[in-house]
Amino acid sequence: MSIPLAQQIRPTTLEEVVGQKHLIGENMPLRNIIESGNLPNMIFYGPSGVGKTTVASIIAKATNRKLCKLNGTTAGTADIKAIVAQLDTFEAQNGILLYLDEIQYFNKKQQQTLLEYIEVGSITLIASTTENPYFYVYNAILSRSTVFEFKAISPEEIIPAVERAFRIVEKQNGYTINADDETVRYISTACGGDVRKAMNAVELCTLTVKPDADGVVNVTVEDAKRLTQRSAMKYDRDGDEHYDIVSAYQKSMRGSDPDAAVHYLARLLDAGDLPSACRRLMVCACEDVGLAYPMIIPIVKAAVDAAMMLGLPEARIPLADAVILVCNSPKSNSAYNAINSAMGDLKKGRSGPIPRQLQNMHYDGEDNKNKGQFYIYPHDYENHWTYQQYLPDAIKNVKYYEYGKNKNEQAAKDYWDRIKKNK
79 exposed, middle or buried (CB, 10 Å; 0-12, 13-18, 19+)? Predict the structure, then answer.
């Protein structure tokens, strides 16, 4: 059986791992944990092909634990029970390290099945995910785990791995491979920080380029451009291009330019980044349209739900509808400014006790000479409103919200100006 090049070149020690020096470099947190031998449950978060599985394998070997692997896309509760059955056997006498890849695909019940075993320490869990674990991992698992973020690997760090891969193929096949610096750098850059993609590109180049008359395989940058995975060349979900695209996407919607917004939506979807397309769309509906057209929030939420249910490529249709609707809608960031101002005051310590009339009071202490809550029930008054103080004394006159200059908010302003004018 032919072993993939990415598997052949897989590191066996932390020193051989490409990148992730912020985690496994000398005196870095994950390295210190591994060297201590006392492993917590961990979640490895980051893009594909950056060493999550490799580091888990090294941890299992370094701590002399039986490594069991499951993939969230295919495994189920029965697979977990099969691993549990190995506990206390001779083979797993030092405990089991369960590496659960793509944990975001495990449903709540499946994740709950793991809890009783990881709580008592009979199984140590290392779960990996390419999605934000704070959104996709069950909170009970998350609260019992330490999250480590793996980052896309820079081209400079991948270059030695690409050079080594060419040498491995050269040795295996017994012929000379020439790949100049430009070709090596292109493959290292085009893989988008994914070492596995870089190894696949090397393997593909050496398989498809024919030897010359002297039996030498000359891999050129043109070969690399033709054969390297298209998605890797165009988009790096954890790099600068990712943030540039999502920034341009949201700013185009904010700027009411449907042509530009749809263009950047297409770039996100073409790269398969449906979560980012949905998240930024939802943010823009709330932040930039907001109270100028408040019904847009449930409308966009419905479009996002439809997109997530449909998946790609059909998800492009409801998302395009919603993106163009956001572009064409009136804009207001009044609520966004209001909550930012309120949170800014809290950070500065500007707050105070909740006014007595708003407290959930059921009993007055004997030392209180002015007994009673004194809450005024607004529905007992004309227009269901009467004046009373709601903010703490220290900031009782502060104004966080300013009505936006749009039809919807101005109508609300006119209404409340009439009601409150005789306060």
Answer: middle
